[in-house]
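Notes from the 1:1 (GR / supervisor)

We went over the backlog. Supervisor wanted to see one worked example end to end before approving the batch request, so GR pasted a single chain during the call. The sequence is below; no edits were made to it. Supervisor asked that the structure be written out right there so they could see what the output format looks like.
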Amino acid sequence: MDETEVTVEDVRDVGPDTVALELATPEGFDALPGQFVLLKAAPEDEEIARHYTISSPDVEGTFELTVGVDLEGDLSPWLAELEGGETIRVEGPYGRIAYEGDRDVVAVAGGPGVGPAVAIAEAAHEAGHEAAVVYEDLSPAHVDRLDALADAGATVTIIDDGGGGRLADAVESHLGDGQFYVFGFAPFVGRVADAIEAAGGDPNDAQIENFG
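Structure output shown during the call:
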């Protein structure tokens, strides 16, 4: 989809320094969990563009983007202060990583990767498949959705104490449980890839989104 103006339906806190933007889905916008959009806005009359991964299990009616708020940033603090009714612009979706509701999943997230990870797990559950989430963050976000997944039968592991070897242990324990989807910054996804290999798996079989 080319650049399109969309309405901000809601902005809500979903964790420490983390908000979720609920955006009205424009006509012709068809995206899957795991894909991302380019968001454009002009907080100080100067256009700023950032990529954000979709964090809702579908895009029917509205779709969600999870935004980590950097108080020194030039866009995220402005987005966090929106109240609904404003307009921003998006284009996309982009990205080769996408969950089509066709298999069991193991969604592994570091930091802001929790948005797409929880969306993929929810989409898998809604499609009748098994889902596991492994999430490493000292200050977890989307805890309510993770709790709901756990209550629905998903296996949810939150590592909020610095990790140690718990990430590698969690990866090993889920190695044969489904397609791996991994989201996070380079050091995190590198550790996950190493853990998959150490456990006897092939990291090239995982769907890995490196945020840089």
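Supervisor's comment: The CA atoms of residues 125 and 131 lie 6 Å apart.
Batch request approved.
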